[in-house]
Amino acid sequence: MALPNAFYAQSGGVTAVINASACGVIETARKHADRIGKVYAGRNGIIGALTEELIDTSRESAEAIAALRSTPSGAFGSCRYKLKSLDANRREYERLIAVFAAHGIRYFFYNGGGDSADTCFKVSQLSKAMGYELQAIHVPKTIDNDLPITDCCPGFGSVAKYVAVSVLEASFDVRSMARTSTKVFVMEVMGRHAGWIAAAGGLVAAQGIPVVILFPEIVFDQAAFLARVDALVKEHGYCSVVISEGCHHADGTFLAEQGSRDAFGHAQLGGAAPVVANMIKEALGHKFHWAVADYLQRAARHVASATDVKQAYALGRKAVQLALAGHNAVMPTIDRISDVPYKYRIGVAPLSKVANTEKFMPRDFISADGFGITPRCQRYLSPLIQGEDYPAYRDGLPAYVTLKNRAVKPKLPAFEIQ
Amino acid sequence: MALPNAFYAQSGGVTAVINASACGVIETARKHADRIGKVYAGRNGIIGALTEELIDTSRESAEAIAALRSTPSGAFGSCRYKLKSLDANRREYERLIAVFAAHGIRYFFYNGGGDSADTCFKVSQLSKAMGYELQAIHVPKTIDNDLPITDCCPGFGSVAKYVAVSVLEASFDVRSMARTSTKVFVMEVMGRHAGWIAAAGGLVAAQGIPVVILFPEIVFDQAAFLARVDALVKEHGYCSVVISEGCHHADGTFLAEQGSRDAFGHAQLGGAAPVVANMIKEALGHKFHWAVADYLQRAARHVASATDVKQAYALGRKAVQLALAGHNAVMPTIDRISDVPYKYRIGVAPLSKVANTEKFMPRDFISADGFGITPRCQRYLSPLIQGEDYPAYRDGLPAYVTLKNRAVKPKLPAFEIQ
Hints:
The structure is a homodimer. By secondary structure, chain A is an alpha/beta fold. Chain A folds into two domains: about 5-140 and about 300-355 and about 390-400, Rossmann fold; about 155-300, Phosphofructokinase domain (Rossmann fold, 3-Layer(aba) Sandwich). Chain A has helices at about 20-30, 45-50, 60-65, 90-100, 115-130, 155-175, 195-200, 220-235, 270-285, 295-300, 305-325, 350-355, 375-380, and strands at about 5-10, 40, 55, 105-110, 135-140, 185-190, 210-215, 240-245, 255-260, 265-270, 290, 330-340, 345-350, 395, 395-400. In chain A, the strands form five sheets. A five-stranded mixed sheet of chain A has the order 3-2-1-4-5, with helices on both faces. Chain A starts with a strand and ends in a 20-residue tail after the last strand. Chains A and B meet through α6, α9, β11, α10 and β15 of A and α6, α9, β11, α10 and β15 of B.
């Protein structure tokens, strides 16, 4: 009898370390070749399962799979595609099961954020209802760090390190120029609803850098903000501002919206940095510079956190181990044991408790005035950016891998995504 | 008789490696303690000489000075302040000489770009005319890479590496997302007149990344640009665009101006990326992401080019050696001997030939269609980004040094800058 195969897919916005989780899944599956057949990957995420565009990862060399550990982005392609509820689109769930059945897939590893955890949970429910034996394991991934239960999410530690390093470097720059030129540097970072990424910018305060953080959790108060910037520039001669893309006014409108929305219905944001930079110029007269890091922050494998890379790999490995141990509808988690020294263990959480819950910054992680992080937040964040895990370089550039991504021959009729 | 002292100042926009040049100057001067007394640094650049705000670098430990080699920004402060012509403001030049005379300064090391080379040259002329014995040596520094004679400028190799690495990483990201989401990534980089920094983005084409470069040297042609993006997205499913802040229309107007001008009268730019991103969305319908790297690119010591760091240090060291050998009104240069293997020697150029000349991208470094770099350009750029020179890290962040910057007691009456 043929061994059961596995299906792995990447979902949503990619990160600097989601491929490290893929590496953990595939290498661990290969180590259990007596119990797992092939690992198929979805070309462009779950869409590849619906359209039966499967990638045969067994065609990749051990070296290529190992190189995933230090390659950012989604090596098999990802997608922003949310399966609707079972009632609204049962057809898609049934198609997934049909594709899994056609290719002998009994393990489903879904690597994504909150929406994907929800999909993963629904697939496990439906397969059970349909009598199709399947183990669905969610591998957490999100730079937003907003999944519940797990102490942190792979992808976050690296973007946090990128943001902290970038704000530190740019702050040194503006400090150099402040006497006659730029006095305020504004950096916009990702984070629609949760301010974890912006919070990482606050880590530079420990080095004496005057920094103002604008969180999505705190309603923007223009007068208080300008007063804070004014006070810092008067005291230090300069300051840096880190603004979350999700920073918004009391009525809920974002400081900057581009007007378009993505497939999940989320507003596509960008451009809050120039808005507050000009606000400062107008009110206080300071020359400014601003940056919008956008994809650079989540793709910055060159300055990844070693802690993050290690955890991303470990959770991919654990997902396979959980599947082999008979688990279903679960997600491996990071359970923190202590801050200093940083200790954690890998735990496991039922998907029923993960799906559709966002974890925001606790109020006591944000300073009383709303513009900084507390020591408690610093103790939480600091371990997550520890350690450097540099990629190999060739000709001055990182030697990132591009896989062959050989297609598996389809067995079913074509399926149209509606 | 007291030994002659030296004065060192940083000028204009700072870089990831200008402190490496400072390190080269100070360490080399310390090695010649039999011939050079103290090295004074200008607090906030040349302004510190005018206001007699001198920093006594002899108060810094050998460890602190050594740490400058891996610390970005200007450790003594820089300024955007251009001395006017001798006729227009002889008073300032005479004040400089007076401060130098009061503090026994006979060596003037000025670390900057084209404007500073001009100032350095004028100071050497005036001191000669006034009968004040002074050796003025310019240490080249500019991320814009636009100084003549020298093959490249310290600061450029590191920003080039940052841009190439960032475009590579973001391109991997958009490639992952292109099936259902973002198809075009636009990154705006510095470079008002010369497209050297934007050109560095073209280095990723060698790895098969579809990339369009918009140079300030090429008048923006909207129809041709959109056709190129369209063709690349049709062929590859996605593409990246690197746009120089100096990209402009036929009538000379920049794609985006913030309206304000700096002390040198240069327009303060920013925001060209969202302009072309929205242009693409409107014409071709593609979802986009855009980033403006701004200070992040020139401060990114964490991903500096080892070649650049080495050259920055070597030119600082050479400046002192030239001074000790009796040179005046000169600038040490990088003279390239061969591309592969990369070989160069340190040369010397008279400042009369350096001042007020900008070096643009040669037309044969830009592809015929104006949207890419040629193999010749690639051979030029590639050696400049070679090698990694990582800073030490502490608690997950680079351990950059902040000097004590102890003031030298003023000896002259106050001077008001007009």
